[in-house]
Amino acid sequence: MKTILLKDFDLVATMDGDRREIRSGYVLVEGNRIAAIGDDPAGIAADETIDGEGKVLLPGFVNTHHHLYQTLFRNVPGAADKELFDWLVFLYERWKGIDEEAVRVSATIGLAELLLSGATTSSDHFYLFPRGHPHLFDSLVEGARAAGIRFHPCRGAMSLSRKDGGLPPDPVVQTEEEILADSQRVIEAYHDPGPLSMLRVALAPCSPFSVTPELMRRTTELADEYGVLLHTHLAESADEEEFCIEKFGARPVDYMEQLGWLRDDAWFAHLVHLNDADIGKLSAAKVGMAHCPSSNMTLGSGIAPVVDLIGADVRIGLAVDGSASNDTSNMIREVRQAMLLQRVRYGAGAFSARDALYLATIGGAKVLRREDEIGSIEVGKAADLIAFDLSGIEFAGAHSDPLAAIVHCAADRVDLSIVNGKVLVRDGRLVDRSIYRLVPRHNEISARLIGAV
């Protein structure tokens, strides 16, 4: 069993229950677990020693919502200035051309970008299955394995086409029987509930405007049968609220309540448009939330009431969302955006850099129901660790509070990333250099898909 000693870090931010911060700290890794933590590594021998002088060590970030295929659709002309519904209608016509290679390559690229920016665990909400490509989920898993990240993909779905009153066009919609059969298949093929699992599966009908109530209900039954989590978009925009009232006679959170989706094994992306009654129901149900600040700003959707939700004990993690509504897959940037956006809504003292980092780490772990395994630096937990180097010019003058400096001074890339005890980023570069060679092919696929309409 390989051991790694990470020592002499300016600060080790544990994100444990006491939010301990250890000056001149060390962490000992044995295999894929954390074996020891402290401030004096004297007498500890290891197979590899990593010097942390001038650096800050944290638990890896947990990205709770993404659409990895959208790394192929960043900065698309005609989409950038649209709000959610118009943006979706415009991009569906381009997205319907994805195939197995597109999904595989975009997954590796998107997850590599996440690794470089601090994420060591990521979810992905994959709901796009164009006709003739029913098994794209397998390509998603293949791409993730190439990146090496801890992965929690969601088998998403769209069953309500435009002709039936939904938003997506027919070519990207599946029947409910197709969806449920493949959902069962991918759970049986890929879901690993074991300790420190590298791959778990959730079920995730896309949204109130792209699936039927019946599919939402039947999905909960399948999730109960296999013991997997549930996920969907919710209360993202004013358009969605109007759609739910018109079609279902209820606001989004009330609609979820009617469907039996307010439960402690479900988490929702966005939760922007909420009233006090909504927050009370979400709190009582102990649901989780994926907060996507950059996406919400890009699409003009609004500011999620995160401070109020924290006060109501809702489990909250951060997320980059899809790169077509963010244009990056950068987790540390998302941490800064989260801090700034809550201050815009609630005031400068309402949400600190540490609060944002807490959501990015143990907060995300709680959303994915993995707080006993990831999200903090504690003995016995997974060896998922990241380090930021504070020697750069952007941190000059900021060393009096090195942890807050990562957020306030706009860190962009990690210096080190360890996932499950394996070093995946060293000196700010991916250890697996072959991933960089995918970039030209990724660009070729992107140009073809964007130019196909």
Can you characterise this structure?
The mean pLDDT is 97. 36% of the residues lie in helices and 21% in strands. Strand 1 and strand 2 form a beta hairpin. The strands form three sheets. Strands 1, 2, 3, 4, 5, 14, 15, 16 and 17 form a nine-stranded mixed sheet that branches. It has a four-stranded parallel sheet with strand order 6-7-8-9. The chain has two domains: 112 residues, Urease, subunit C, domain 1 (Roll); 307 residues, Metal-dependent hydrolases (TIM Barrel, Alpha-Beta Barrel). With 453 residues, the protein is an alpha/beta fold.
User: How many helices?
Assistant: 14
Strand content is: 15-25%
Strand count: 17
CATH names the topology of the largest domain as TIM Barrel
Helix/strand layout:
Blueprint: E1 3-13, E2 21-30, E3 33-38, E4 48-51, E5 55-59, E6 61-63, H1 84-95, H2 100-116, E7 119-126, H3 136-147, E8 150-157, H4 176-190, E9 202-205, H5 213-226, E10 230-234, H6 238-248, H7 252-259, E11 266-270, H8 276-285, E12 288-291, H9 293-298, H10 306-311, E13 315-318, H11 331-346, H12 353-367, E14 385-389, H13 402-408, E15 416-419, E16 422-426, E17 429-430, H14 439-450
Parallel strand pairs: 1-4, 1-5, 6-7, 7-8, 8-9, 10-11, 11-12, 12-13
Antiparallel strand pairs: 1-2, 2-3, 5-14, 14-15, 15-16, 16-17
Helix pairs in contact: 2-3, 2-14, 4-5, 11-12, 12-13
